[in-house]
Design a protein that fits this description.
Rossmann fold, 15% strand, 537 residues
Length: 537
């Protein structure tokens, strides 16, 4: 047993996960790997956004196959135990586990980075097979070939964070090419490779049809259906976790609907809707909703991808922050690509990193956790021009609405319309909705804002649900070439206020006022009009 060969580290890590009260059993994935052992298509690269369970799955694969510990202690009670080949493979294979995110102390060069891994594996092999004439000066693949030739041993390679190297400041473009060549020499068509399971965020950079790593079958979340269900949490899995949470938490502060609003919204190619697993587990463990996934990085993480082409994506950000979806042709995003210029390149990269979700050939912001970061970007980044300026008016707009000051509301809307915004043609209510969303952006600090929510007998443009029950609730209806009075009549006639009623026999959810807000725009006169009425349930 060594640091890399049949290491105890992944077993201990996975044991910790299994013992967690919010553990979700994804071990059925192992059953999909078993038929590939020693077959031609035995190379798997599965990529997902960070914190979507990649490392957990890598530790699971190494723990199941590896000889470091008796895997039955972990897997006898998991789904994989029902597989007919379970007993033939659990703890029966030699596993070389490499986590490329681990670095040597004080590492400042590619050679030092790689020497830790290469020399570590050589030392493990020499210790495991003392009877063999292993020369550690030889290439790693030559030593592995020697082991196979002499005693017939094959190895399963589990590679976690394969793309971590591409983010290191000391790694040059030439180093990256050397790294891909290293993986090719180590793995491609090598008879000692029984299986390779590789995971990371970035898909493999394919330079040509004869690229270094073209033996891998690649599976991302947005375009490949296989393995979709093993990363992220499904609705039914979150249902079970929520039951655990309610049972074990003395004073539950989170509702099931809260989890959907904050952490749901990702889609796989198979059409499965997924929750961010890291955020769900953190929220239930802490008994608190927060930006767990995005909290580790500021809005600059989003700005990084749009910085080269702000003009092209500015309008789309305004629409997406309003809840709209933007059609794109999703393209592959490779590890070697850093110069993102076109909208398709930018959005494809943001899908890969989990900053956007992709469904039915369109991208959108998946949930409140990400929406908060996009709103922060809009409010804090003046590079976004008119989008930033409109959002800066949002505090004044909300205060004017709550005080019934329709003159100030109209004044702000006129200011908005006098900007250079290309979305202010108001060709339809979608464009008006995007503008209204921007000028109420700061309301999201006090309200949960939803678009096109099913309410009463129809669909309402915006509903503002107060975070505090005694604050005013708002229902916004928008009209082009109509009147705000007509908008309010629709709110009343369609009984949109029923969204604020409790269940039968319960008290209403909100004790404050319910304000119907009608906003219209006349394309002939180029004027906005606003009207506010208090309505009852």
């Amino acid at each position: 047993m060594g640091l890399f060969l049949n290491s105890k580290i992944p077993f201990i890590n996975y044991s910790t996960m299994v013992a967690d009260p919010y553990f979700v059993d994804k071990s059925a994935l192992l059953g999909e790997l078993l038929p590939a052992l020693c077959m031609k298509n035995r190379y798997f690269c599965i990529t997902r956004p960070r914190r979507f369970g990649k490392s957990v799955m890598a530790s699971m694969v190494a723990s199941f196959f590896g000889k470091a510990e008796d895997g039955r202690k972990l897997f006898d009670c998991l789904a994989i135990a029902d597989n007919t080949d379970y007993s033939s493979h659990v703890s029966c294979h030699n596993v070389i586990f490499i986590d490329f995110s681990r670095m040597p102390q004080f590492c400042d060069s590619y050679l030092v980075y790689m020497e830790r891994i290469v020399n570590g594996i050589k030392a493990d092999l020499k210790g495991e097979y003392p009877e063999l004439p292993i020369d550690t000066e030889q290439a790693l693949w030559d030593i592995l070939q020697l082991v196979f030739d002499k005693i017939g041993q094959r190895f399963i390679f589990v590679i976690d964070e394969w793309d971590a190297l591409f983010d290191k400041s000391f790694v040059t473009d030439e180093n990256k090419k050397d790294y891909l060549e290293f993986l090719r020499e180590l793995l491609k068509d090598q008879v000692y490779v029984e299986l390779t399971y590789m995971t990371g965020v970035l898909p493999i950079a394919k330079y040509s049809s004869g690229s270094e790593l073209n033996m891998f079958l690649e599976y991302d979340m947005a375009t490949k259906k296989k393995f979709s269900e093993y990363f992220g949490f499904s609705d039914s899995e979150v249902d079970r976790l929520f039951e655990v949470y309610v049972t074990k938490t003395e004073y539950p502060a989170i509702s099931r609907e809260d989890l959907r609003i904050w952490y749901d919204g990702y889609y796989t190619a198979a059409g499965i809707r997924m929750y961010n697993p890291h955020s769900v587990v953190c929220a239930l463990s802490d008994n608190e909703l927060a930006n767990y996934w995005t909290g580790s990085g500021p809005y600059d993480e989003i700005f990084y991808y749009i910085r080269h082409n702000i003009d092209a994506v500015r309008d789309d950000i305004a629409f997406m922050a309003s809840g709209e979806r933007i059609p794109i042709m999703l393209r592959g995003y490779g590890a070697a690509e850093t110069d993102l210029r076109t909208k398709n390149q930018i959005y494809s990269a943001m899908v890969v990193y989990g900053l956007l979700t992709y469904e039915n050939k369109a991208v959108s912001i998946p949930n409140k956790e990400l929406m908060d970061k996009f709103n922060e970007l809009i409010l804090e980044n003046d590079h976004l021009g008119y989008v930033h300026r409109l959002a800066k008016e949002s505090d004044r707009m909300l205060n004017a609405t709550l005080s019934g000051d329709t003159d100030t509301m109209a004044e702000i809307l006129e200011y908005v319309h006098d900007t250079e915004s290309p979305i202010l043609t108001y060709n339809n209510e979608t464009e008006l909705s995007a503008v209204v969303n921007l000028i109420y952006l700061l309301a999201r600090d006090r309200y949960r804002v939803e678009r096109e929510d099913k309410a009463g007998e129809g669909y309402v443009d915006f509903i503002f649900y107060p975070e505090m029950g005694n604050e005013d609730a708002l229902i916004l209806e928008l009209k082009v070439d109509s009147t705000p009075k007509e908008a309010i009549r629709q709110i009343i006639d369609k009984k949109y206020a029923l969204r604020f009623a409790g269940k039968l026999g319960e008290r209403p959810k909100y004790t404050g006022r319910i304000l119907a807000v009608g906003i219209s725009y006349d394309r002939k006169t180029k004027k906005h009009a606003c009207q506010i009425e208090r309505i009852r349930l």
